[in-house]
Inverse folding.
């Protein structure tokens, strides 16, 4: 029976597993193991009320180790994740950052930009064995970190804009060295010194917290952990640190909540899972209410919500805990965490203020706002408890639902207020942002001044005053001195070394150099080395990387907004100019000088010359997807022929070295009016040609003519050796059928062009026929040719 | 033809604002892609005291292709031929679009300080340099006196 239950469990059929366990318990009598199985099944199935009850019983019947709670942990994490999906706030996808590492959320140290365009501290990315990007989830299987050089632009900017933080960062390294040697007191000393230089660096506090915890100074550790969370509510490790500190203080319920908060933000933190199961073990192995020691448990100082709840529920006489409400509240706390985290976009602000113009104003405003928000936030977090208690008492009164169903969440939602932590002024969303998927993820800025919040913060001001520790107050002060150093924001720091303009779609090479994507593409047309350092970019080219370096993009949008908008305009104008090519009689078309092509006839091209690589790329990017094809000219004055044919691009296949095979098909014919050059390739002003309409009285004779010639061509084909025929079919397809609607078409019947392409004609003859605008004349000329061919063939 | 690319405008502005020591480069009034360049012979080289006129032209594809540079003043140098053409890798296959007018002129200045007879353009001069360096340097000094003195800048 138990085997059956295990099998059901392993195939995720938890309800069946629970049923079997229950029956087995009824039949064979209770054992710890059976109840554990039942509890696990309930936990994984989402029925936590029953799960907790069963765990309690399992603990009573025998020894249960924390490791055996892993299914409970998995179940809890699953619930938290589900809540996210249900509440629609699944946007934990981390938004773009500027100076912040996506992994440690600290100021970038030795920044490396990985192929997806996101930037991390080298150390952080090194530690992450998954090789996946924390921001976008792309896995870089083949990436070798040692082949990646530091991002030059970002390194320079950070050195220049964050001098204090850079000093603090070197102190941190010293502190870490002490820590690894076990010299915790020295480590704390150095960390403290660094914190004075960079009070907003959560990593310093997190490290000091760890050091305190290692000395069993859990109160100090907790204070630091709380601050870490306040500085970076979106950083999972902050909650882990808090959990460890509280665990050390013996408040296991609070610790469990903190660990779950951590896991809600990042399900991969295995140490948090371990600690969570340990904390749950402590909670579950707590003494039952009839035990006299339970009183001691209840007398614990500073009982928090979850503790109260769990104690209340677990100490009920019948030991039937109403875990559902406990859990829904737990879920609420966790969800709050996630909401806060996903609304949070704290970025370090450089110690500089732009000239007294508009930008500085908005920055200042943002900062003040931020401080206010932060104060509000910490008041709110203190308020949360009372708020939830109110909510809960209400809930308990009318609670009749068996589990934390959707209804609970809906109600919770009403209570949960969005909170604002955004330090940056809401930037007007530019078109570029919308176009760029990575920046489009920026969550909607939360409502800043919800009346509710204002009401709360004023009515409870006395309470929050009390609760503000000296440390919190320190952080609420302006974070950075506001120097007047306008010369520090130098636009040249973000200038492309190739076009000498502000970056547009900046991309970073493995050697750490940044260029506009289009500028680098052009260089790679010529040679596969970095224009700056001559480093080999063959792999970069082969992968056809396009990802914009997110951090640099954001810095431009934030600190050089005006210039960036200008730059976008310039790019748009360039694209419009390219897109206009060939759209009207007066504009120029790009011209590929190579061969003669005909309307409707396919023409595959091998593109290897740099100028034509650029031309094809521009055709694709501008969306015109067409260019003119002309024959090289024999006369010395002109580089190419007077007549040509447009080629429409149907497909482009790239080789790893940047060459490509372009599949094209002939379009309109044109006559060249004048010749020009652009970006190294030929261009022409052209007049598009179309056949003169056929007079009604001629229709019949033209039709007779085309039927006759079509038949003649078939005759000619039939006389060709079969190998010739096969080759023709391979290149040009079979002879198109007769076209009866020819009298309306611009180019006449397709089969005639097919014949001109296939027949062994001199290019001058072909050219002359391409320029003919009378179908009748063209057919007569063709007839003469085929007659000659057939005569020669018969001889 | 499109207007002057922003890069050329910026380079010109920066060359004017922060000139390189010993080098002047002034754009032609008619053609902004053509520069009149004067390079002072580096000290402790046989060209010391001379002022050498060069022309520099930015082709249509610049910066994808290298600027065209030529000595207008006669110079006795193993890597510069009678027509003033210069044998310098960055002007040929080692060109990179990240290089600029400034770096090209600095490289030419450096070439005057360090002639490289092992990669010659003018074989007779290079041969002279290799067989009798002292005599070759004397010859270079004489030519400098003859052709590159400030007030008698000859062109050929």
């Amino acid at each position: 029976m138990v085997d059956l239950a295990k099998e059901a469990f392993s195939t995720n059929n938890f309800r069946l597993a629970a049923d079997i366990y229950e029956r087995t318990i009824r039949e064979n009598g209770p054992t710890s193991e059976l109840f554990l199985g039942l509890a696990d099944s309930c936990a994984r199935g989402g029925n936590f009320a029953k799960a907790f009850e069963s765990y309690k019983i399992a603990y009573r019947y025998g020894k249960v180790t924390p490791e055996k709670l892993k299914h409970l942990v998995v179940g809890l994490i699953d619930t938290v994740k589900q809540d996210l999906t249900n509440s629609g706030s699944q946007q934990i996808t981390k938004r773009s950052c500027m100076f912040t590492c996506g992994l440690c959320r600290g100021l970038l140290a030795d920044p490396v930009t990985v192929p997806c365009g996101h930037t991390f501290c080298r150390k952080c990315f090194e530690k992450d064995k998954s090789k996946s990007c924390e921001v976008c989830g792309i896995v870089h299987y083949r990436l070798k970190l040692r082949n990646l050089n530091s991002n030059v632009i970002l390194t320079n900017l950070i050195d220049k804009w964050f001098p204090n933080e850079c000093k603090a960062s070197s102190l941190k390294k010293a502190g870490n060295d002490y820590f690894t040697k076990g010299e915790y007191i020295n480590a704390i000393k150095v960390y403290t010194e660094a914190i004075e230089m960079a009070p907003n660096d959560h990593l310093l506090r997190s490290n000091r917290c760890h050091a305190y915890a290692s000395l069993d100074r859990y109160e100090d550790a907790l204070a630091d952990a709380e601050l870490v969370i306040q500085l970076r509510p979106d950083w999972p490790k902050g909650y882990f640190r808090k959990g460890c500190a509280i665990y050390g203080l013996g408040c296991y319920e609070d610790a469990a909540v903190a660990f779950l908060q951590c896991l809600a933000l990042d399900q991969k933190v295995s140490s948090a899972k371990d600690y969570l199961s340990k904390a749950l073990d402590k909670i579950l192995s707590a003494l039952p209410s009839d035990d006299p020691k339970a009183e001691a448990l209840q007398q614990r100082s500073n009982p928090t919500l979850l503790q109260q709840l769990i104690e209340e529920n677990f100490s009920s006489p019948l030991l039937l805990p109403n875990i559902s409400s406990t859990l829904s509240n737990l879920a609420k706390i966790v969800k709050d965490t996630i909401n806060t985290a996903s609304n949070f976009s704290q970025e370090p602000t450089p110690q500089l203020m732009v000239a007294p113009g508009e930008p500085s104003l908005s920055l200042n405003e943002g900062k003040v706002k931020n401080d206010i928000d932060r104060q509000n936030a910490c008041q709110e977090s203190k308020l949360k408890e009372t708020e939830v208690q109110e909510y809960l008492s209400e809930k308990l009164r009318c609670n009749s639902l068996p589990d934390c169903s959707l209804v609970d969440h809906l109600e919770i939602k009403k209570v949960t207020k969005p909170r604002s932590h955004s330090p940056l002024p809401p930037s007007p969303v530019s078109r570029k942002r919308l176009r760029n998927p990575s920046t489009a993820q920026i969550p909607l800025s939360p409502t800043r001044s919800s009346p509710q919040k204002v009401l709360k913060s004023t009515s409870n001001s006395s309470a929050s005053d009390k609760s503000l520790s000296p440390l919190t107050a320190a952080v609420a002060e302006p974070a950075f001195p506001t120097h007047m150093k306008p010369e520090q924001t130098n636009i040249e720091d973000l200038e492309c070394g190739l076009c000498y303009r502000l970056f547009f779609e900046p991309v970073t090479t493995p050697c750490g150099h940044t260029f506009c994507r289009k500028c680098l593409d052009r260089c790679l047309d010529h040679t596969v080395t970095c224009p700056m350092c001559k480093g080999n970019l063959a792999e970069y080219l082969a992968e056809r990387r396009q990802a914009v370096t997110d951090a640099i993009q954001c810095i431009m949008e934030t600190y050089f907004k005006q210039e960036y908008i200008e730059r976008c305009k310039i790019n748009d104008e360039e694209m419009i100019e390219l897109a206009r090519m060939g759209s009207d009689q007066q504009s120029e078309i790009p011209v590929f000088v190579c061969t003669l092509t005909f309307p409707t006839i396919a023409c595959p091209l091998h593109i290897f010359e740099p100028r034509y690589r650029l031309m094809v790329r521009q055709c694709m990017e501008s969306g015109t997807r067409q260019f003119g094809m002309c024959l090289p000219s024999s006369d010395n004055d002109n580089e190419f022929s007077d007549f040509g044919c447009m080629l429409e691009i149907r497909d482009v296949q790239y080789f790893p070295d940047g060459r490509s095979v372009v599949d094209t098909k002939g379009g309109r014919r044109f006559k060249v009016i004048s010749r020009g050059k652009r970006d190294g390739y030929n261009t022409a002003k052209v007049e598009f040609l179309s056949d003169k309409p056929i007079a009604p009285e001629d229709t019949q004779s033209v039709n007779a003519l085309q039927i006759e010639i079509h038949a003649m061509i078939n005759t000619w084909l039939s006389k060709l050796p079969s190998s010739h025929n096969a080759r023709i079919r391979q290149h040009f397809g079979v002879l198109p059928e007769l076209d009866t609607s020819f009298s309306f078409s611009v180019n006449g019947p397709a089969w005639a062009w097919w014949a001109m392409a296939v027949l062994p004609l001199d290019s001058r003859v072909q050219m002359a026929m391409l320029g003919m605008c009378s179908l009748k004349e063209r057919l007569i000329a063709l007839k003469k040719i085929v007659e000659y061919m057939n005569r020669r063939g018969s001889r | 033809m499109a207007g002057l690319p922003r890069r050329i405008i910026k380079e010109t502005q920066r060359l004017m604002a922060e000139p390189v020591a010993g080098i002047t480069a002034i754009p032609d009034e008619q053609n902004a892609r053509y520069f009149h360049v004067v390079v002072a012979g580096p000290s402790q080289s046989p060209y010391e005291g001379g002022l050498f006129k060069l022309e520099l032209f930015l082709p249509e594809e610049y910066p994808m292709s290298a600027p065209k540079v030529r000595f207008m003043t006669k110079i006795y140098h193993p890597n510069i031929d009678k027509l003033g053409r210069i044998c310098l890798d960055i002007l040929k296959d080692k060109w990179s679009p990240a290089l600029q007018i400034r770096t090209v002129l600095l490289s030419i200045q450096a070439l005057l300080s360090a002639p490289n007879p092992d990669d010659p353009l003018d074989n007779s001069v290079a041969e002279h340099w290799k067989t009798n360096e002292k005599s070759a340097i004397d010859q270079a000094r004489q030519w400098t006196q003859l052709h590159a003195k400030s007030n008698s800048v000859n062109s050929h």
